[in-house]
Amino acid sequence: EDDHFGLMNCISYRSAFGGVTGSYHFLHKLVQEFLAACAVKQLPAEKQRKFWKERLILGYNKQGDFVLSDSNYEMPFLFFCGIGGLENDAVQDLLFEPLAFTNDRWFTRSTPFPEIATAVAESRNEELCQRVMEYRSDADIRYLSPHQLNSLAYLMTISRHIKRLTVRNSSYSTDANQIDSFIQQISGKVTYLEEVTIE
Predict the structure, then answer these.
(1) Residue 76 neighbours by CB distance under 10 Å
(2) I need a labelling partner for 25 at 20 to 30 A (CA). Which of 78, 101, 106, 188 fits?
(3) Are 126 and 156 within 8 A, CB to CB?
(4) Residue 1 to residues 6, 8, 22, 132, 178: CA-CA distances in angstroms?
């Protein structure tokens, strides 16, 4: 029989020796990840930086995709970004360091832009939105997840740097409906675009 205590469950079961024992679990892993992000946000700024420096990958996985972190720390980091608006300069520097080493215009999984754009969009920090987009006046988008497309659309409504946009629909993860949704999100809001091409 399960007992419920707010954010946690107590699951009771009978052991092989006849005794009753129980274990406690969060209702969902997201609850644990959110509380972890809240705990990190309470740390002094330098300890926040140290915590994330030890846990973020900010590099390439075996498939050649750029990743923020392994799956255990991705959601806590995104929650952290959303809770505090990425106001810690030292954490911002960690996040933006990979952008200094890329000069192509691609917004694909093999570049830092989609992952960093996602973290910055979660923060809703308009200054950082400008900063992440100032690197490009052209954007060539392909192979993005729906969440990455939504994040990029948000950044494009804040920033005014991209003048030419090419959206390529040749991806297993980006179908026509997702592209249409992306275009609808930016249409009417992104008036500074000079050219939009959908292939």
Answers:
(1) 23
(2) 78
(3) no
(4) 16, 14, 10, 51, 43
**Contact between residue 114 and residue 151 where contact means Cβ atoms under 8 Å apart:** yes
Query: How many other C-beta atoms lie within 10 A of the C-beta of residue 122?
Result: 20
For CA atoms 189, 106, 173, 73, the dihedral sign is negative
Instruction: State if pTM tops 0.90.
Output: no
Q: Confirm if 51 and 33 have CB atoms less than 8 A apart.
A: no
With tokens 């970004």, the residue in question is 81
Tokens 């409906």 — which residue? Answer: 177
pLDDT, tens digit, 9 for 90 and up, residues 32-45: 899 999 999 999 99
Query: pLDDT for 89-100, tens place per residue?
Result: 999 999 888 887
Q: Which of 130, 122, 174, 177 is nearest to 151 (CA)?
A: 122
Q: Which residues contact 40 (CB under 8 A, 6 or more apart)?
A: 48, 51, 52, 76, 80
Q: Which of 117, 184, 123, 104 is closest to 144 using CA atoms?
A: 117
Q: What are the angstrom distances between the C-alpha of 99 and each of 10, 87, 95, 103?
A: 45, 18, 8, 8
Q: Which residue has the tokens 């987009």?
A: 133
Helical residues (DSSP H) of 42-88, grouped into ranges: 45-55, 71-84
Contact 11, 25 (CB under 8 A): yes
* DSSP conformation class of 36: H
